[in-house]
Amino acid sequence: MRSKGTAAELEARRRLAVLRVSEGWTRAEVAAFLGVHRETVGEWVRAHAAGGQKALAPKPHPGRTPFLTADQEKRVLGWLTESPTKHGFRTDLWTAKQVAELIRTKFGVAFHPNYLREWLTKRNHTPQKPARRAKQRNPEAIAAWLKQDWPRIKKRSGGRTPTSS
């Protein structure tokens, strides 16, 4: 399993281990100091002896290269804090299809909407649906009804709400 840390941090740790061993520290002391196994320190020392400083350099990232750079990912996540209408869409609800379309037009990268849903979920963006409200809803009329009519209706029912018995 790969240790936690950036490639540069892990390389610095390997170089420090080799340096400490060359200064006279035992492999067990270096391992305890760095929080690794004694045999790991031995592997680093042997690699350095065989290939020099170049042998301690980080290895290429395994697997497929990500479709978006870290900067592009930040920009995409920033878009999600804005309204979709600002980006030319008709509704105020982001969909995976809209995000995929925006990524394609801005960065030239094609994501399948199903994959994009998974990608967004891993970054703590889950599907959102707005509260359903009637188009005819009138907040002023509701407030007036609650102030004037509801107390009269409640008084007639003896203080009981419709759900109480």
Outline the structure in words.
The chain is 53% helix and 0% strand. The relative contact order is 0.06. The chain is built from 7 helices and no strands. The protein has helices spanning 7-22, 27-34, 38-51, 70-79, 96-107, 113-122, 139-156. It is elongated, with a radius of gyration of 31 Å. Helix 2 packs across helix 3 (38-51). It is mostly helical and 165 residues long. The mean pLDDT is 87. Among the domains are: 7-56; 70-122, no CATH class. It comes from Gemmata palustris. Pfam families: HTH_23, HTH_33. This is IS630 family transposase.
List keywords for this structure.
0% strand, mainly alpha, 7 helices, Transpos_IS630-like, 165 residues, IS630 family transposase, Winged_HTH_dom, 53% helix
Topology record:
Blueprint: H1 7-22, H2 27-34, H3 38-51, H4 70-79, H5 96-107, H6 113-122, H7 139-156
Helix pairs in contact: 1-2, 1-3, 2-3, 5-6
How many helical stretches?
Answer: 7
Mean pLDDT: 87
Strand content: under 5%
Shape: elongated
The major sheet is characterized as: none
Number of strands: 0
The string of secondary-structure elements, in order, is HHHHHHH
Distance between the termini: 63 Å
Helix content: 40-55%
Rg on CA atoms, Å? 31 Å
Taking pLDDT < 50 over at least 5 consecutive residues as the criterion, the unreliable ranges are none
Class inferred from helices and paired strands:
mainly alpha
Q: What's this model, at a glance?
A:
With 165 residues, the protein is mainly α.
